């Protein structure tokens, strides 16, 4: 006789085992991205002889565009077909990526690998975000996003450090990318065998939901959700532009910092430490900042975080040497930690559960579009005026984004429930 499954309940403690399983899955998602952070910028220069920054950054452009587009579809697909099928599909898309990175005979193969990696990341990372929001309900959303993003970016950091060490001792290929292949195999197995669907949790929350827009927005079309998230809602649109600028400067850090550090004579090991320090502080800091935003609110943490990032970027542009750049990486990571989980939690505060997954996907469309914008803007500026000028210009954009949040975003959306 089949035993009836227990009815869903909301809360971190009540769903702890599934929540922590999803944390582990997202650490592996981050690791598949981290396999590239130290190695690919150097691969472009040393093995493929790509001298122009704009050309070398094509892989970040490809990654950003494909991930941004797939973020948008991930929310719609997870609403239509469920969260787990989208998560598993994302891992399947990643399977060819290490092979392309290892055996690619020309740069086009590397770009193709990053198109697939972007699609995979859009499906897997977006879905782990939505599933955690589903499980915890409204009360601990900042904490949940902090744990999710901490796991992902600690995975990025650890893998950037490990692959830097492997590249320094065994070469740029194939060793670093074998780590990514192992992550993908484990992540696919965990997601297919052990992760459970969370759609029934969001239905429960929707039935209990008190809408921050006065109850008028429970059922919206995709176009209406896009306009609200991107332009018309003061908080949602502020969050979307801040996310775009945040990943614009992350794209700069990913693509150009290793080249800057190598041109200054740093070793592969030192470059690996710097490439890992930024996401490590970013990842670990979110364990604190996500929960802090539940207590203190979202707006001013986001504003301050963007300004701290701008200071870190100025230090990279104006400084020289390992010690200065390490301090700058710590500042950049701290500022990003203040912003990253708080932006996601702010989306969850405002969006109705009935269209929250779509709103998260649209926010992530804008946010990860920042990778593409960052690759283009920083690459062109670096080619024309040099690396320090490109980095300083992005620092100015980052500070301006923080000011937009301070002026436009509502200050009390986190307290509406």
Automatic annotation (TrEMBL):
<dbReference type="InterPro" id="IPR011701">
    <property type="entry name" value="MFS"/>
</dbReference>
<dbReference type="InterPro" id="IPR036259">
    <property type="entry name" value="MFS_trans_sf"/>
</dbReference>
<feature type="transmembrane region" description="Helical">
    <location>
        <begin position="151"/>
        <end position="171"/>
    </location>
</feature>
<keyword id="KW-0813">Transport</keyword>
<feature type="transmembrane region" description="Helical">
    <location>
        <begin position="86"/>
        <end position="103"/>
    </location>
</feature>
<feature type="transmembrane region" description="Helical">
    <location>
        <begin position="388"/>
        <end position="407"/>
    </location>
</feature>
<dbReference type="Pfam" id="PF07690">
    <property type="entry name" value="MFS_1"/>
</dbReference>
<dbReference type="InterPro" id="IPR020846">
    <property type="entry name" value="MFS_dom"/>
</dbReference>
<keyword id="KW-0812">Transmembrane</keyword>
<feature type="transmembrane region" description="Helical">
    <location>
        <begin position="324"/>
        <end position="344"/>
    </location>
</feature>
<keyword id="KW-1003">Cell membrane</keyword>
<feature type="transmembrane region" description="Helical">
    <location>
        <begin position="50"/>
        <end position="74"/>
    </location>
</feature>
<feature type="transmembrane region" description="Helical">
    <location>
        <begin position="177"/>
        <end position="195"/>
    </location>
</feature>
<keyword id="KW-0472">Membrane</keyword>
<feature type="transmembrane region" description="Helical">
    <location>
        <begin position="109"/>
        <end position="130"/>
    </location>
</feature>
<feature type="transmembrane region" description="Helical">
    <location>
        <begin position="300"/>
        <end position="318"/>
    </location>
</feature>
<dbReference type="InterPro" id="IPR050171">
    <property type="entry name" value="MFS_Transporters"/>
</dbReference>
<protein>
    <submittedName>
        <fullName>MFS transporter</fullName>
    </submittedName>
</protein>
<keyword id="KW-1133">Transmembrane helix</keyword>
<dbReference type="InterPro" id="IPR005829">
    <property type="entry name" value="Sugar_transporter_CS"/>
</dbReference>
<feature type="domain" description="Major facilitator superfamily (MFS) profile">
    <location>
        <begin position="10"/>
        <end position="413"/>
    </location>
</feature>
């Amino acid at each position: 006789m089949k035993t009836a499954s227990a009815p869903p309940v909301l809360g971190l403690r009540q769903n702890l085992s599934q929540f922590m399983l999803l944390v582990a899955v997202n650490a592996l998602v981050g690791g598949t991205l981290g396999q590239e952070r130290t190695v690919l910028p150097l691969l472009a220069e040393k093995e493929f002889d790509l001298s122009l920054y704009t050309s070398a950054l094509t892989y970040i452009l490809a990654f950003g565009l494909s991930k941004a587009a797939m973020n948008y579809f991930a929310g719609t697909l997870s609403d239509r077909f469920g969260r787990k099928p989208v998560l598993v599909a994302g891992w399947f898309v990643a399977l060819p990526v290490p092979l392309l990175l290892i055996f690619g005979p020309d740069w086009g193969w590397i770009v193709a690998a990053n198109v697939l990696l972007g699609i995979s990341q859009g499906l897997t990372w977006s879905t782990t975000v939505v599933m955690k929001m589903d499980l915890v309900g409204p009360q601990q959303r900042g904490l949940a996003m902090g744990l999710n993003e901490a796991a992902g970016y600690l995975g990025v950091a650890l893998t950037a450090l490990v692959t830097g060490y492997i590249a320094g001792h065994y070469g740029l290929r194939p060793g670093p990318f074998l780590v990514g292949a192992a992550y993908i195999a484990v992540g696919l197995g965990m997601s297919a065998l052990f992760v459970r669907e969370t759609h029934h949790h969001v239905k429960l929350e929707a039935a209990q939901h008190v809408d921050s827009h006065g109850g008028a927005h429970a059922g919206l079309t995709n176009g209406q959700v896009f306009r609200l998230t991107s332009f018309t809602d003061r908080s949602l649109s502020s969050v979307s532009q801040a996310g775009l600028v945040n990943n614009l400067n992350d794209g700069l850090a990913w693509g150009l910092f290793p080249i800057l550090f190598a041109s200054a004579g740093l070793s592969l090991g030192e470059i690996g430490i710097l490439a890992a320090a930024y996401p490590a502080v970013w990842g670990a800091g979110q364990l604190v900042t996500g929960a802090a935003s539940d207590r203190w609110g979202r707006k001013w943490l986001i504003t301050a975080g963007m300004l701290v990032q701008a200071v870190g970027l100025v230090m990279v542009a104006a400084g020289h040497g390992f010690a200065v750049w390490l301090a700058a990486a710590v500042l950049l990571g701290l500022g990003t930690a203040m912003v990253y989980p708080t932006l996601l939690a702010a989306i969850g505060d405002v969006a109705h559960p009935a269209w929250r997954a779509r709103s998260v996907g649209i926010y992530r469309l804008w946010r990860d579009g920042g990778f593409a914008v960052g690759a283009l803007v920083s690459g062109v500026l670096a080619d024309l005026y040099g690396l320090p000028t490109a980095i300083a210009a992005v620092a100015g954009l980052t500070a301006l984004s923080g000011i937009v949040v301070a002026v436009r975003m509502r200050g009390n959306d986190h307290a509406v429930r």
